[in-house]
Amino acid sequence: MAEEELTFTENMDLTLPERNLSNLAIRFPELLPSRHFMDLSRWPIFCILNTELLSTVRKIFVFGNSGNEAIFITDRDDVFAFGSNCSNCLGLGDSHSSFEPRKIDSLCQKKVIDISFGSGPHVVALTQAGEVYSWGHNGYCQLGNGSSSPGFIPGLVTTNVINRKVVKIACGSHHTMALLSDGEVYAWGQNNCGQVGTGSSTNQPSPRKIIATIGTRFAVAIACGQTSSMALLDNGEVYGWGYNGNGQLGIGNNVNQPNPCRVVALQSIIITQIVCGYAHTLALSDEGSIYSWGANSYGQLGTGNKANAVVPAKVTSQSESRFVEIAASHYSHISASMCQNGKVYMWGQCRGQSLTSPWMTRFSSTDDVFAAFSTPQVSWRIYSVDLIKGSRVADAVAAAFDNPETSDIKFVVDGKDIHVHKTILKMRCEHFRSMFQSCWDEGSKESIEITQYSYPVYKAFLKYLYTDDVDLSPDEAIGLLDLSNSYCEELLKMKCESLIRQSISVDNVAMLYAAAIKFGAQTLEDFCFRFSLNHMTAVTQSEAFNKLDESVVKEFIYKASLAGAFRN
């Protein structure tokens, strides 16, 4: 049956007659304001677990041809698997399916930080120490153990990567890639279309460094389509190789490539993230725009039509906020993204329907899009679980923030009250520990007025002490960075830097660069400097750059000259 194309518009009236509303609810329940789900209930396979076990789950990964296999990690770092066990992909040592979760003993207490799967099928796991484990189908040597024998339990991948730190893994249908901490890219497995990047079409039984074109360059990200591969370099350049029948390499033709080829059409655009669907590719720029290319039979490119694209095209969206994340899986034809304002969009093949342009959902993460609308319902990355609200002590502490009924002190900022608890502040912050345990005048007060910071900034700071989350817009985060520097809150400082990076543009990067220097935010300073190098002409002509102190300008020019910015 042919896919039905949806023609929703952003201002669609959802207050429709009951009959139409019911039809919409059946097809797209998450678009309706009355629908609310517990986090894990979006994944059907997790509905069979008991509540006690669910309460221990911290990370999950769902895979399989029907979304019927899953691996999860508990709060004790135990790793469990359950489901259909196709080709031994549960890693339990046998080929028996199991609705009862069983431990993958060889991965327990290994601090698994990433999992990837190939639709072949095979599974690869990455530990915090940088070790790679693989298991499952191995007919094309995709496990990287030098043989084509199946793996019943996770086996350590050793050739060329042992005693080296792998930081990212990715799987195509029958091939695997690994990114090392030194920026080198290794690949192995099926190579019929050149997806391993060795310059030939011979299968590769063990990890082999990709030398051609990117061999001496520093890669920062990798991604796999079904039979294609992509790499993102530290300067924002994108390279692709392997199958190109749908234009998924973005190089302007449909010819397979056995070696990495640069996506030249992105030459003037700095890319910061790249992901692959079944036969399409998405790229996110440092200015928050999304570019797509490849297969488009379901509208997965988000260009408003169903025509394939052999070169990158900008994704059309009515969102006024910049995009900060993109998502896709080589298992499906769906695409998703998140904006800086937290809005999540989806397009492509959505539960048997075709959305040709980004559609705003009520989800809070791109992971939820894949749980509810992907076919099959599989993860696009390992998913950290938010527990049900109120189920932990931490939730009770968070709920106590700004509660006048339980607080024993309040801060007054810009004439507004913020109700907090001395005990929590003392436990969480050295500044308040000194304030309330010494001879400070504030130690005996029930109300303290704050004049150095704005109400949104100080409230965000106090809320952070209760929740570990920063609830503040990127535009206001500079004030919080100032506060975190003054209060010596290094973790908060890092969170602020990360938040601020989401809003960097040609117009404000000079101001943010100066602020980073002032507040000792080295990571943010480096990021702003690299961004400025990539947009040198526009940045140096901006109003913010003209307002910089002379000493900052001189230091910037000196650093830029060392980086080769002024070479002919």
UniProtKB/TrEMBL annotation:
<dbReference type="Pfam" id="PF25390">
    <property type="entry name" value="WD40_RLD"/>
</dbReference>
<dbReference type="Pfam" id="PF00651">
    <property type="entry name" value="BTB"/>
</dbReference>
<feature type="domain" description="BTB">
    <location>
        <begin position="407"/>
        <end position="474"/>
    </location>
</feature>
<feature type="repeat" description="RCC1">
    <location>
        <begin position="130"/>
        <end position="182"/>
    </location>
</feature>
<dbReference type="InterPro" id="IPR058923">
    <property type="entry name" value="RCC1-like_dom"/>
</dbReference>
<dbReference type="InterPro" id="IPR011333">
    <property type="entry name" value="SKP1/BTB/POZ_sf"/>
</dbReference>
<feature type="repeat" description="RCC1">
    <location>
        <begin position="77"/>
        <end position="128"/>
    </location>
</feature>
<dbReference type="InterPro" id="IPR009091">
    <property type="entry name" value="RCC1/BLIP-II"/>
</dbReference>
<dbReference type="InterPro" id="IPR051625">
    <property type="entry name" value="Signaling_Regulatory_Domain"/>
</dbReference>
<dbReference type="InterPro" id="IPR000210">
    <property type="entry name" value="BTB/POZ_dom"/>
</dbReference>
<feature type="repeat" description="RCC1">
    <location>
        <begin position="288"/>
        <end position="339"/>
    </location>
</feature>
<protein>
    <submittedName>
        <fullName>RCC1 and BTB domain-containing protein 1</fullName>
    </submittedName>
</protein>
<keyword id="KW-0677">Repeat</keyword>
<feature type="repeat" description="RCC1">
    <location>
        <begin position="236"/>
        <end position="287"/>
    </location>
</feature>
<feature type="repeat" description="RCC1">
    <location>
        <begin position="183"/>
        <end position="235"/>
    </location>
</feature>
<dbReference type="InterPro" id="IPR000408">
    <property type="entry name" value="Reg_chr_condens"/>
</dbReference>
